């Protein structure tokens, strides 16, 4: 694994925290989806995932017994040049497709999916330039 270069914001470091019910299952899912590696050992509550090249935003998985209720107010967007292939890939890893038909807006085309805990995320194809 490369030296760690954290994702900064103007007053410190940025990390994305995802609430999950099963750390191991979620770590396996998100590390495969994002191509991230586990960083250090897991505790009973937290497990950190970082980009394999060491550069970028940490994804911190946080175990909770709370059930997800309603739509996420914050979610990840996975932007890809091949929507169909990426949706198929993440579904094969355990994601559930939420939208039957792709959503199209301002040239962007996307599907909403959910991780094994029901957390929504989007797979998007940018407009053709």
Automatic annotation (TrEMBL):
InterPro entries: Glyas_Bleomycin-R_OHBP_Dase, Glyoxalase_6, VOC_core. Residues 12-126 form the VOC domain. Coiled coil: none annotated. It comes from the Bacteria. PANTHER family: CONSERVED PROTEIN (PTHR35908:SF1), HYPOTHETICAL FUSION PROTEIN (PTHR35908). This is VOC family protein. It comes from Kribbella pittospori.
């Amino acid at each position: 694994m490369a030296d760690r270069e954290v994702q900064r914001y103007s007053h410190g470091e940025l990390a994305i925290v995802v609430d999950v019910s099963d750390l191991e299952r979620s770590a396996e899912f998100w590390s495969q989806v994002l191509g991230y590696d586990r960083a250090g050992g897991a505790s009973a509550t937290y497990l950190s995932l970082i980009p394999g090249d060491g550069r970028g935003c940490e994804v911190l998985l946080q175990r909770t017994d709370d059930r997800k209720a309603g739509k996420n107010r914050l979610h990840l967007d996975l932007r890809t040049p091949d929507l169909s292939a990426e949706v198929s890939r993440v579904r094969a890893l355990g994601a559930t497709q939420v939208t039957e038909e792709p959503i199209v807006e301002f040239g962007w085309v996307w599907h909403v999916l959910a991780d094994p805990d029901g957390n929504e995320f989007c797979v998007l194809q940018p407009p053709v330039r």
